[in-house]
Structure formats: structure tokens, C-alpha cells
From TrEMBL:
GO MF term list: isopentenyl-diphosphate delta-isomerase activity
Binding site for substrate: R7, K8, S96, V97, R98, Q159
Assembly: Homooctamer. Dimer of tetramers.
UniProt subcellular location: Cytoplasm
Keyword terms of this UniProt record: Cytoplasm, Flavoprotein, FMN, Isomerase, Isoprene biosynthesis, Magnesium, Metal-binding, NADP
Keyword NADP among record annotations: yes
Name assigned to this protein: Isopentenyl-diphosphate delta-isomerase
Role played: Involved in the biosynthesis of isoprenoids. Catalyzes the 1,3-allylic rearrangement of the homoallylic substrate isopentenyl (IPP) to its allylic isomer, dimethylallyl diphosphate (DMAPP).
Record-listed E.C. numbers: 5.3.3.2
């Protein structure tokens, strides 16, 4: 189990010190622009961004994407992120809790409910673990550990094959997800980790009973790139370079998922670095927007730095809403003021 904790340490270190930005992709959000409303006819102070997630209120449609756990450093990061999420009314996702389920010694590194008593918290496991002995019991334990309001299972197939110790049997998982959704009392969500979920898959997942889909599209952190920095095998490193372009950009994921599933609860994430990006994802049809690696450095710096960034992200969202004359998230979601200024990518 030492190996899971060591891997988590490596991941944080690599994400902080190496260039792990997707080299061959952008989020696609730069292809969209808001048409400014010179006469917005609203009072900036009257803009509302409140919403709900996992049956609890949020002050803004933002979540901390699932990142870390299982080490002393991760505990500090998680507690800072969770406490800031509580203060600002964001949802909070923890990194995979598998390490804690398999090694009780690291359980304490996932304890955050005391600093985030009211906001929605979701726990996290790899969906592939359903093929490696995990089932409803382990998911219940993952929920209990965090006193979480829901669980998100991550789909990280491409990361696993580039990871020397990866679990690579992804067969039959949709059916197992379907069964889990019927057995588990809490909501089950599905996320990718930065290569995206296309529209047809999102529709299949909703049909299987998942409560939310987080597209975690391409254009931000690339987990092939992260694993490349851990790999000792030059063959894997060269193959990782070949796959620099892998992934469906975040903007395309949202457009596709919304087209295929008009009512599914949809989270946009993957390469979201500012509040204008977030506003674009919401205008494209997402219900919430998630921030991952963008929060990591300030979380290590401390809560003041993190709070400052989160406040700016919120201001930027409101500024975009003001700039197009939208008072509420419902108005932003249906806006005709987001236009595509670049042609859609050519289909192969
Ligand atoms: C240090 C780090 C650790 C991560 N660990 C997990 C994890 O345990 N489970 C998970 O579902 N996603 C994990 N992710 C992926 C993020 O949730 C997110 O989907 C991905 O980084 C893309 O978003 P970004 O471009 O905003 O970073 C991790 C990301 C980072 C930066």
C-alpha cells in the first residue's frame, strides 16, 4: 500500500513542478465569445449565482475537482481546500480514497467533514476497481469515511495503461455501474480525469442511473503527461509523446453531452482556469464547473491565497454575467449571447 501513497506524493510533486498541461489540446473554449451587452439593464448587486448539488445549497456553481489524499501533505491540501470550499459555498471533491480503504493507517488523511460541515462533499474511487474486487460495500465505506453526500467514480483508462502499476481491465463496467446505482443509497456520479466524456457515453451513463456526469475534458491537466514523468520505461515515455493530442476538448464534451442529454446534471471541468472559462461552460449548458490543478498551488500556499483566487473566480463569473445582462444561472444557461467565432474542428 506504500505504493499508492508514494504514487499520490509523486502526482502532487509532478503536477507542481513539471509541465503537465495537455500539449496537443486546448479546452476549445477560446473558440467561443460572449456578445457584450452595452446596456445590461441589471444591477450588478442583484446577480444571483446560488444553486444546488447533491441536495445541498451552493453559493456559486463551482466545485473543487477530486484531487488528492493518502499522505500527510495531501491531508493538509484537502483540509485547506475543504475549509475554503465551506467558507465560499463551493462543493468539494476528495481524491481517490482507495488508499484509506486498503490501509487504515492513512484514513485520517481524508478527514475533512469537520472543516466543511455544510457544503456538499463527494468521495472518489476508480470505476475500474469494480473489476478488482470493489462493490457496493467498498463504496459505502468510501461514503462513510468522508461523511459524504455522494460518490464519484473516475474513468481513467488511458492513465491506467500509461501507469506502470495500472489496473487495465475496463470490460463490463457500464453494467457494474448500473447495478451499483440501484444498490447504493447515495448518488453516484461519473467523471473522467482530463480526456473527456463524449455525448453518447454521457447519455448511456445517465440511462444507467448516474446522478451526474463530470466531463473532465481535454485542455488542462494531461494524465498521460503526468504518468510520463513517473515512467522509467523509455518506450512508455515515447508512446506518451505520441498521445499528446489525446482527448476530447472540454467545450466539445459539454456541447455533445447537452445535445444528447438535455436534462442530465452536467459538470464541466478540465482546464478551467478562470471565471470567464467557467461562464462559457455554463452558457454551453453545464450545471456546475470544476477546478482541479488551478487550485493546487494556492492550496499549498495556504487558505488566504486560495480564498483570494476563489473570490476572483467568482467575481469573474459575475462580471461575465453582468457583461451580457444575465441576473441568474438560469438566464446564463439559456443565453444566445455566446457565439462560436471559430469553425468547429474538422471531423476525421
Ligand atoms: C494532483 C491531482 C490529483 C488527482 N487525483 C485524482 C483522483 O484521485 N481522482 C480523480 O477522479 N481525479 C483526480 N485528478 C483529476 C482531476 O479531478 C481533474 O479531472 C483533472 O486534473 C482535469 O482537470 P484540471 O485540468 O482542472 O486539472 C487529480 C488531479 C490532480 C491535479
Amino acid at each position: 500500500m506504500e505504493s499508492i501513497s508514494q504514487r499520490k506524493k509523486d502526482h502532487i510533486q509532478i503536477c507542481l513542478t513539471q509541465n503537465v498541461q495537455s500539449a496537443g489540446n486546448t479546452t476549445g473554449l477560446e473558440a467561443y465569445r460572449f456578445i457584450p451587452e452595452a446596456l445590461p439593464e441589471i444591477d450588478f448587486e442583484s446577480i444571483h449565482t446560488e444553486t444546488r448539488f447533491l441536495h445541498k445549497p451552493l453559493k456559486v456553481p463551482f466545485i473543487v475537482s477530486s484531487m488528492t489524499g493518502g499522505t500527510t501533505e495531501a491531508l493538509q491540501i484537502n483540509r485547506t481546500l475543504a475549509s475554503a470550499a465551506e467558507a465560499r459555498g463551493w462543493g468539494f471533491g476528495i481524491g481517490s480514497v482507495r488508499a484509506a480503504l486498503e490501509n487504515p493507517e492513512v484514513r485520517s488523511s481524508f478527514i475533512v467533514r469537520d472543516v466543511a460541515p455544510t457544503v456538499p462533499i463527494f468521495t472518489n474511487l476508480g470505476a475500474v476497481q469494480l473489476n478488482y474486487g470493489y462493490g457496493v460495500e467498498q463504496c459505502r465505506a468510501a461514503l462513510e469515511l468522508l461523511q459524504a453526500d455522494g460518490i464519484v467514480l473516475h474513468l481513467n483508462s488511458m492513465q491506467e495503461i500509461f501507469q506502470p502499476e495500472g489496473d487495465t481491465n475496463f470490460s463490463g463496467l457500464l453494467e457494474k455501474i448500473r447495478v451499483l446505482c440501484t444498490q447504493l443509497e447515495a448518488p453516484v456520479g461519473i467523471k473522467e480525469v482530463g480526456f473527456g466524456i463524449h455525448g453518447e457515453l454521457a447519455a448511456k451513463l445517465y440511462e444507467a442511473g448516474v446522478a451526474f456526469v463530470d466531463v473532465a475534458g481535454a485542455g488542462g491537466t494531461s494524465w498521460i503527461e503526468v504518468e510520463k514523468h513517473r515512467a522509467k520505461d523509455p518506450q512508455l515515455q515515447l508512446a506518451a509523446d505520441t498521445f499528446a493530442e489525446w482527448g476530447l476538448p472540454t467545450a466539445d464534451c459539454i456541447v455533445q453531452a447537452r445535445a444528447c442529454s438535455p436534462n442530465g446534471f452536467l459538470i464541466a471541468s478540465g482546464g478551467i482556469h478562470n471565471g470567464l472559462h467557467a461562464a462559457k461552460t455554463l452558457a454551453l449548458g453545464a450545471d456546475l464547473c470544476g477546478f482541479g490543478r488551478r487550485l493546487l498551488e494556492p492550496a499549498i500556499e495556504g487558505e488566504a491565497a486560495l480564498d483570494k483566487l476563489m473570490a476572483r473566480l467568482e467575481f469573474e463569473l459575475k462580471a461575465a454575467m453582468f457583461g451580457i445582462g444575465c441576473k441568474s444561472l438560469a438566464e446564463l444557461k439559456g443565453t444566445s449571447k455566446l457565439v462560436r467565432t471559430a469553425p468547429p474542428p474538422a471531423r476525421a
